[in-house]
């Protein structure tokens, strides 16, 4: 928890003032039963109207001052809690953003989303209630017991005896429910992951009529979440009735013994009312304390999960001042590069070696051959398991993150756009790019016609994920964004898949004039890489052939087979 407390250091002052103002409010509340006792024993018994009015005015004054203290405390606690969660969420997001693809794959996107949303909200609520009640409730409970002794020591023993019994019940339930709430969050991860997967793959689900199967699986996961949540809720729900029973038994005993002592003249009626009021205060505060325990139990479970993410160190370190590129060296070199996703996973790439000095490089292979794995090593989305990847004369690990990002522009296999204007999306490539550069990139990416047709130009609003655009339009805009970056190495990962043949041909011709030192085109079609200066053929993670289109048709059976399938030749059998 020490890691979490550091986020409250910035709000140290208001984190101290909030409980202090709450305790000041509680102190005023402790005087109320004494004033009521005096009204009954002195004012009413002596029929002193002036004294009753004076005491009533005092009660109103105590209420107003207490209200001011309470509002101030609520403000400070809310400000500290919201500031705490905002700083925590920002640091957590920044920390997760620094994870390698490998670590994100291992931890799971749905689990990380839960940490950033649900778990952080739980921690915020825990901080808020802790600042408001953690000191106030025990202060009122013990204060009410002490004040009861000042009224009548013998009757106060009943209140004093009830408190430790209730404390044992609260601690027992808290120790039992904390692991349960941790399981609840884990089950919630599963539900969020399934939901996210279904929303992203809704078209595939409908295409294969798997709606009912996915609905059944979702029902199974939500059922598991419900079972754990319901069981944890049942245990937590025992707190209120158990505390009510114990307190009410204590109240009955207090009133019974108080009545007997009043009959004997050992106690006044006002004293009995005061003792009962103190017992009621104890009851109210213990109920608040119970709710605090439940909330804090869930908050602690969420905090531990957040800490586990913050404790994860990035497995991909970058030097602060890295190497500078040597543009006289080959653009990209692979030397016996291996890649595996996870420690116990099979190799996705095995012993890949090649040198690309410049021009255009094609990478082709069947689905699962390792094409995307290969190009992901160049911008260092993943690190090699063995061997080396060099970029402009240096190992990619020798570059700082900023330098590496400046050297390589990637058009991912899945076209990703963000909500905002077209200008904002294109400027991800270069924040300082002029409108002329943006229009030039759109023209080369064959996106000029439909952007112009929209009528809003660069101010055209793109919805989240580019859902107001077709697949081909999204793909062309992601290419344009990469061109704006004007990097010496441009990687196109199957970036023609949603384009018609004429548009693809025009784009390939336009990309030859981008000024990039090396253009790498990844595709499953020979038609997309046939014009490249050099082509690599991958099979099952291994580089099996390299050469030009003409030479590979003669020397590589795999390449010839892919080409014949496209041409509708005999190899399609």
Written overview of the protein:
The strands form three sheets. A six-stranded mixed β-sheet has the order 6-9-10-3-11-12. Strands 2-1-4-5 form a four-stranded antiparallel β-sheet, with no helix packed on it. The chain is an alpha/beta fold. It is elongated, with a radius of gyration of 35 Å. It has two domains: 2-310, Up-down Bundle (ABC transporter transmembrane region fold), CATH 1.20.1560; 332-572, Rossmann fold. It is built from 21 helices and twelve strands. Helix 6 runs antiparallel to helix 7 (153-200), helix 15 (435-444) crosses helix 17 and helix 20 (549-555) packs across helix 21. The chain has helices spanning 2-5, 12-44, 49-97, 101-107, 109-133, 136-151, 153-200, 202-207, 211-237, 239-263, 269-310, 371-376, 401-407, 422-426, 435-444, 448-454, 471-485, 501-511, 526-529, 549-555, 557-567, and strands at 332-340, 347-356, 359-365, 386-391, 394-395, 408-411, 420-421, 461-462, 489-493, 518-523, 534-539, 542-547. Residues 569-573 have low confidence and may be disordered. 64% of the residues lie in helices and 11% in strands.
